[in-house]
Structure formats: C-alpha cells, structure tokens
Amino acid sequence: MAWNPAAWMVVVALSATVACGELRKEPEELSSEIVAVQGVVIRNQLPYQVSGVQILATRTGRFVGCGLIMSGTFCRMAFDAQALYGSDIIVSWEEHGKPHSSGEVQIEQPANLVPDKAAWVEVLIFAPGQVGARLIQ
C-alpha cells in the first residue's frame, strides 16, 4: 500500500467498550492508496483530568470519544484494522468543567510510516486548550 497524504480521511470503527461512534468514508470516495488503522489513543499530558473527549471527522460527522482521562494517562480504543483517509479532525473536551475545541487539526504523518503495517491515531492533549494528532506504529 502506498501513502498519499492528500487523500486520507480518518476512518475508525466502533470500539466495543469505549467508542461512541464510528468514522467511515463512503466506498465511492475511497482511493487505492490507504493506511490501515487499528485504533485511537488519546493521551492527557495535563496535570489534571479532562472529560468528554470527542474526536470528530470533519468530512463525515462521525466520532469516537472517551468520558474521562486522568492526568498522565490515556484512553485507548482498539478495533479491527480499518482504512485511513484524510487528515482533518476536530477534538473537543472539558478542562475544569470548561469546554474546549481544537478547530480543524491535521493528523501528522511520520516520515518512516510503513504502509503495510497497521497504525494508530494518537491524539495528545499537551497544554491547556491545546491538542495535536499523529499516526504512530
């Protein structure tokens, strides 16, 4: 499988235990160039808990989420490998009861991505009101 950063959109299947929804593209929009994603991990690097974390695919309106992530921990959603397309997501969450939203975030692609190896989408809440996203293997 070849990687095309201009043609990917987050596609995530519903986790049986944690996820609230799924992210998926319609078959007619799919490219032959894909990366398999087998899960999402959301890391809270803040010195306090965050709640109501939601990752929204801007093109499809579908989402996954975690209810509560303690300081220095993570929420992980694993599933059967799914195709990954596109890069725009919106992350929303609460800190001390105050809602935050990232606006559109582009998932960073590592230079050493192995196309035939499944990847994870990693979302980092790294500073008050700040998030980043990247693919990890």
Write a structural description:
- It is a single chain.
- This protein is mainly beta and 137 residues long.
- It is 0% helix and 50% strand.
- The chain contains no helices and eight strands.
- The protein has strands at residues 35-44, 50-57, 63-69, 74-84, 88-95, 98-106, 119-127, 130-136.
- The strands form two sheets. Strands 4-1-7-8 form a four-stranded mixed sheet, with no helix packed on it. It has a four-stranded antiparallel sheet with strand order 3-2-5-6, with no helix packed on it.
- A hairpin with a 2-residue loop joins strand 7 and strand 8.
- Mean pLDDT is 76; it is low at 1-33.
Question: How would you state the average pLDDT, rounded?
Answer: 76
Radius of gyration: 14 Å
Helix content: under 10%
Number of helical segments? 0
Assembly state of the chains shown: single chain
List keywords for this structure.
137 residues, mainly beta, four-stranded mixed sheet, four-stranded antiparallel sheet, 8 strands, 0% helix, disordered N terminus
Draw up the topology in text.
Blueprint lengths: L34 E10 L5 E8 L5 E7 L4 E11 L3 E8 L2 E9 L12 E9 L2 E7 L1
Parallel strand pairs: 1-7
Antiparallel strand pairs: 1-4, 2-3, 2-5, 5-6, 7-8
Produce a short descriptive summary.
It is built from no helices and eight strands.
